[in-house]
Structure prediction request, 346 residues.
Amino acid sequence: MNQTVNEIRHSDKRGQEQFERLLEKAGMKRDKNLDYIAGIYDENYNLIASGACFGNALRCLAVDEKHQGEGLMAPVVTHLTEHQMSKSRRHLFLHTKCANAGIFSALGFYEIARSEDGVLLMESVKNSFGNFLADIGARKKGGKSAAIVVNCNPFTLGHRYLVERTAAENDTVHLFVVSEDLSLFPFADRYRLVEEGCADLSNVILHTTGSYMVSSAVFPSYFLKDETSVIQAQARLDIAVFKQIAEAAGAQTRYVGEEPFSHVTGIYNKIMQERLPLSGIECKIIPRKEHGGTAISASRVRALLQEGRIQECKELVPPTTYQYFFSESGAKVIKAIQEAEDVVHY
Prediction:
């Protein structure tokens, strides 16, 4: 059996159609957002095995049912891994059906979490997630504990209100800042603004999310427009990962801000309300802080910055964030915002 793996280019209409049909036969749906697609063809140039990449994740891994058991997945994964290595991506993630756990374990991947949809998330670095959990556990404290996960693009008085409320109701707050650098404000700047904006709250412990929460590996729909069903599936997987993180932190409650604007976050909040209590974790949705009769949001701040109305942001963000806007780093971000087509979170 030929095991040569070939790239399926975007311009290859026949290859793209075969890729979609192969996924459909395998009970899978093609991801809209893929960086690279490859596959194996038989002697009649019919696609019989495939795989794709998005960021540092392997996706859409499938083998035609007539050719299963012929060892075709190994060369596909090897090819995709080599492609990722050429892009300097060494810590890889993959999504597959739970039934395929043994196949990918044999190819050097390790389980992180599985969702009730039967989706399995794995990674290529042994003990990486375990070490991530251990680091969180090392900062665990007694008493009543809660968790918050925020992107803070940028940190606003709305975020500050959520953290204040959580800190007042709990002995410890584990505050996770999304590490993925797919926002207009760079991660390093977002993290620093959260750190500075919460410096007076002594019971707040800051963490990064790494690639494990609200990331392009687990939840790309947070950053990209997708169908509701795709957003829901990714949100359920993200929550399956979070449950283990909450256990490591000793968090009994997850606090989230009410979401009147973002379609994605609104869906995510709804699923959290449904799924977290099943694992003994309360999900508390806090009404947004308002200014001028409208909820304060990072999207609102970005829209004002895009329009050059920086001074109007003063009532919506902490002093540390407002000062940042006039720094060299802040000026670069504002320039990027003003050049962007859309600055509102989908």
Residues 6-126 form a domain with the Aminopeptidase fold (CATH 3.40.630.30). The longest strand covers residues 47-54.
